[in-house]
Amino acid sequence: MQVLLIPIVLIMFFCGPPKPTSPPQLQNPEESRLHSMDSMSLIKNLDSENIPLINQSILELASRKEKSIIPKLRNFLTQSKNTSLLSTSLLALGDLEDRESTQLIASFANGSQGVSQSVVVDALGRMKDPSGAKAILPLLDSPIHSLRLQVVESLSLMKASGSGEEVLNLARSNTDPEKAKTYAMALGKLQFKPAENYLMSLAENSPPSPTLAASYLALGRIQSRKAIPNLVEALGNEFEKGRENSALALIMIKDDSCLPLIYPYLKSKSSELRYLAASVIVEIPRDSSVREAAKLLEGNDSVFYGVSSYILGRMKARSFAPKIVEVLKDRNTPEREIIAQSLGWLGDRNSIPALIEVLREKEGEGRYGAAWALGILEAKEAFSDLAEATASKDYKLKNLAIESLGMLKMEEGIPVLEKLIDENKNNSIFAMKSIANIQSDRARLSLENFAKSEDPILFHTAIEMLGKRKDETSIPFLMKLLKEDSSSKQKLIFNSLSSITGKKLYSTADWIQWYESSGK
User: Fold this and answer.
1) Residues with Cβ < 8 Å from 38, sequence gap 6 or more?
2) The model scores a pTM over 0.90
3) Distance (Å, rounded) from C-alpha 43 to C-alpha 58?
4) Are the beta carbons of 438 and 413 closer than 8 angstroms?
5) What is the pLDDT of residues 368-415, one digit of tens each?
6) What span, in angstroms and rounded, lies between the C-alpha atoms of 10 and 508?
7) In the Cβ-directed half-sphere of 374, how many Cα atoms lie within 13 Å?
8) Cβ-count burial 458-495 (b if 16+ within 10 Å, e if not)
């Protein structure tokens, strides 16, 4: 379906689990060794002659928010000539948000001391101090595209709205269309409302291009009501990125005066345009939108049943559930996946039998929406059908069914999910996430068993899920694993323990001391 090419619509429509990703690379032995060291030992490393060791120790200490090293870092910046050490110190001071060092960091922005300007911009962004903005504003005119984008991001992190006027003046004096995109992005990120006329002019005079798309998004960020007619018109234009950004902009503005202008798009022959319009409509909920969608659902053209069901589902118009079920049952109806999903959004449990019937079909996209909706509705009566669907050769149906089994929160689902992992460890991300949703000792013990594995795909996901469950009953197991296991699991265990306990400790010794003193 072409509509799925649009990111905003993809987020709303593909409600199943994300594609699995490979676990992060394991730490190398030196990184792991430093991570397990106490802070005092790491601080001593800063007096070493070994620059790589100093750099790694600085980064580790900064990640622990160890502010006692700030004087040492400032000293490196004023005394050292080693660009690697200078770069690391700049980034660490930024991470530590030591605002007294902002101007010292800013003094490196001209690049005269050999440090990459990219590093300086990054450090100031991490600092989040708007007083650092002035040093990097000239870099908005840099010939290096990636550096300009980095400046925009850092200005946003600084919340440097006070620099908006200066950015606008730079934008007005600029003659490079490519750089105009950067200025539009910056003005939008700073939410600088006085830039409205400049951005309107840019939008009206730019050809289809990244600059035009950026101007639309910036107009949304400054909530320009004046731009609404232009943005609505852009929804129907051929420039794809412009369509996407105009939809996002209208959602940001959230002015219902745009709705009457958007409704005609719901009858477009383009499925992509219909759903793009719907994505805006549902984010500005009004009774008039329910009425417009109802007309389409109750009409004779089945092409519009999907988009109308989507709007009614997202807006919780439950009185239309029987009609949505009626059109869903007709296998010739287009876009049945979305129609089935809408019953999940509605929260209509009376539709469960119809959804089970659709899930049992041998083929067709309706099964995807039904599997997801049954999970959302926590339809325990669909357990056996969802369990059967996890064995499907259809990858999308399989993973939606796995996700929905977790939503049912039934212990009976655990053996099914465990079997899937045993058959193919690539199922582990989806299946363990579902196991984690089941709040029982049986689920906890299942995850703990997978956490003992030496397979990174299995133990990484299992330990992460134990942390996300925030069940204090897992603390003794995680501590035992921390004491016994190799360094490969160390950081994962630290993160999970932090998630469960709220404590931020950075070495095995610190965690053991906390555990023994807490009497857990």
Assistant:
1) 507, 509, 510
2) no
3) 8
4) yes
5) 999 999 999 999 999 999 999 999 999 999 999 999 999 999 999 999
6) 42
7) 34
8) bbbbbbbbbbbbebeebbebbbebbeebebebbbbbbe
